[in-house]
Amino acid sequence: xxxxxxxxxxxxxxxxxxxxxxxxxxxxxxxxxxxxxxxxxxxxxxxxxxxxxxxxxxxxxxxxxxxxxxxxxxxxxxxxxxxxxxxxxxxxxxxxxxxxxxxxxxxxxxxxxxxxxxxxxxxxxxxxxxxxxxxxxx
Length: 138
What we know:
By secondary structure, this protein is mainly alpha-helical. 75% of the residues lie in helices and 4% in strands. The protein has one domain.
């Protein structure tokens, strides 16, 4: 019974990870943003780890070599998942900061009233980048 529950749990994880991977695949194809690629790679690596899990449960390796290969494949895939996920977050947060700084510091003839920030830079009162600035630097 316990083995059946483990298999069912793995199948549910595969379904959710596959849904997320498809979402990021479609998103990277439609948005063409470099920051989204590591997230797609991360979810594909997570699917790889789950595939290794399925192979382990159904093939039931009996030799030490087969067990070691399954363990190595799982750990490699999960480590790649974390590394790609962190890389995607790093890239996305750097792009948001750079775009917030450049759009907040750049002079705009539309806005005449400016206020000073704690960094000594001025920014428009009602700029669309104001909320972006507050999200990144507060």
